[in-house]
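EI: anyone free to look at a 193-residue chain?
SC: sure, send it
EI:
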Amino acid sequence: MSAVVTVPPEPVVTVEEAKAHLRVDHTDDDALISGLVAAATSYFDGPDGILGRSIGAQTIAWRLDAFPADAEAGRIPYPRVTAIEAVSYLDVDGAEQVLDPGAYRVVGLGTDTAWFTLASGAAWPATLTDDEAVVVEYVAGYADGTVPAALRHAILMTVAYWYDQRETASAGELHQVPEGADTLSRPYRLPVV
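SC: here you go
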């Protein structure tokens, strides 16, 4: 199983918000600040982030070797899942097929735990016995304006820390993120499935 972002999220913190937080009123560092916002967001967000969740709305391709055999196997990673875009699979002949949306359902849309499961009375089609024979494309993340304030502030704190610590620091002084950002984000961490 793997998950890959196919449509990246828009930043949940704008350069203007970061500049206000940093008290920067010039444009000389806009490219640097934009890069720091992107880096801080990716540190927390999506398949590569430490939280095990999607923050900004993004499209993810979840690749499975087969259709889920039970509910736990169908637990969709990196929630908040808001929509399933498409489900495709390789049939026994290796041809790509699109699964009829009536054959499956998603339980828990918009929550921290969503499951991709078989619809009542349906059966999973036979697939090629191969790695990543099933791909579930879904949209996950918080809708515009609903990103928790603590996560937005953790990103801003991280941007500020990295902005201030651009120069080489001794090993004893170097921290990946400020303790406050880690503390703010901790309640939002989910186990990665």
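EI: The chain has a mean pLDDT of 91.
SC: 👍
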